Amino acid sequence: MCHVIVTCRSMLWTLLSIVVAFAELIAFMSADWLIGRAKPSSSEEVDNRTGGSQEPYRPTLGIYGRCTRISHMQFSRRDTLCGPYAENFSEIASGFWQATAIFLAMGIMILCTVAFVSVFTMCVQSIMKKSIFNVCGLLQGIAGLFLILGLILYPAGWGCQKAISYCGPYASAYKLGDCSLGWAFYTAIGGTVLTFICAVFSAQAEIATSSDKVQEEIEEGKNLICLL
């Protein structure tokens, strides 16, 4: 018989697992890892709405994507165009970024799997006498290690030609040059920290769903058990 068990700790772990997976996925897909040098608008480029010169634009560069601004001379306006600069894996700008993409993708796949499984832990808490919470916590720890490896290797690729074209000639491995870090990089770091927090917190979710109060509710024949 399936017992639906919901506790504050197990629900918090489930929500955090889902948030972490989405955060890492969005960061990986974003082009806002590096913010390039400002490209000032020429004196001839005028904002139609204000009549003044347009603000300098800073293009962004991701692991496999980029955002830049293109001109429409016939309309005297500029549009931002975002998309992948690499049509396939081998065209990613740096071997270090290729390794970063592999490690991040592996970590994100594990996190997405755990996030999917975590939804069903309300109804199924163990498989083959092994706690799903403990197994998921172990997987989250492994995913966190993959994410750390990817984030460590990423700055080593700042010396590639693609990064130099955005960050200037002084850019090199672990040196940003004229670039700055974008929100996607910080999101990936925050997601990695939360991944390890989730891995540790999974033990608390296991304790909460197997507590004496839960067992008492089961013995009373209740199928829906909600505890603080």
Automatic annotation (TrEMBL):
Family annotation (InterPro entries): LHFPL (IPR019372)
Transmembrane segments: 12-35, 96-120, 132-154, 183-203
Keywords (A to Z) from UniProt: Fertilization, Membrane, Transmembrane, Transmembrane helix
CC terms in the record's Gene Ontology section: membrane
Main location as per UniProt: membrane
A biological process term (GO) from this entry: single fertilization
Membrane topology summary: Multi-pass membrane protein
Subcellular location: Membrane
Transmembrane found in the keyword field: yes
Protein family membership: Belongs to the LHFP family.
Protein's name according to its UniProt entry: LHPL2 protein
Upper taxonomic lineage: Eukaryota, Metazoa, Chordata, Craniata, Vertebrata
Gene (UniProt): Lhfpl2
